[in-house]
Specification:
The chain is mainly alpha-helical and 206 residues long. Helices cover 36% and strands 7% of the residues.
């Protein structure tokens, strides 16, 4: 089996709800990142054997194999194969796992793993919205075997099992924010992200 080497990694700045990146199509944002990864690595984009992209809500602007439409929108070679995967919150991690496995197995020499989710434009859970008249994504037989536990209830159960207090989590959150602020001040993230020039919102908020 082949040895796998991570050549480079890049991302956009982390956005917020209805923030700067929300004015852009998810495929456009993803394409910018994909192209930045290729440009930074110095690899010929036509040498990429497979692009694997993680995306949870593959509906609307994030549908139709967004990993490929983003790649093509960025002006990258049409000859490169693309696949978009949904493993819920672990989608991009699974994309990385699959890209790694393809290289390790010798199926391709070069693979690109990527991911996108702009929840300001495609709200979380919208794919299961009954108002679209397409039904719900979970069959009735599921509920006969498993609970439909929310992340909030899951967090409570984890806290109870491991004896984690509210004070513990508040302190952890505060420390994390303080470390992040210090890291930004020291430019530790400088080589990790690509600058994205997003259009301003109109006066009506659109």
């Amino acid at each position: 089996m082949s040895n796998v080497v991570i050549v480079d990694a890049v991302r956009t700045p982390i956005g917020k709800r209805n923030g700067g990146l929300s004015t852009m199509h998810p495929g456009e944002v993803l394409g910018i990142v994909q192209k930045a990864a290729i440009d930074r690595s110095g690899i010929d984009p036509s040498a990429v054997g497979q692009v694997v992209t993680g995306c949870v809500s593959q509906i609307g602007e994030q549908a139709f194999n967004i990993g490929r439409t983003a790649w093509l929108a960025a002006g990258l070679p049409i000859t490169v194969a693309n696949t978009t995967v949904d493993a819920q919150c672990g989608s991009s991690q699974q994309a990385t796992n699959l890209a790694t496995a393809l290289v390790k197995a010798g199926v391709v020499d070069v693979a690109l793993a990527s991911g996108v989710e702009i929840m300001s434009r495609i709200p979380i859970g919208i794919a299961g919205n009954k108002n679209f008249g397409l039904g719900v994504p979970i069959p009735k037989t599921y509920f006969g075997r498993y609970e439909m536990t929310s992340q909030f209830e899951g967090a409570e159960r984890i806290a109870e099992k491991w004896g984690i207090t509210r004070e513990d989590t508040d302190q952890w959150g505060l420390t994390s924010q303080q470390r992040a602020a210090q890291a930004w001040a020291e430019d530790r993230f400088g080589g990790q992200y690509v600058t994205v020039e997003a259009p301003d919102r109109n006066e009506d908020g659109t």
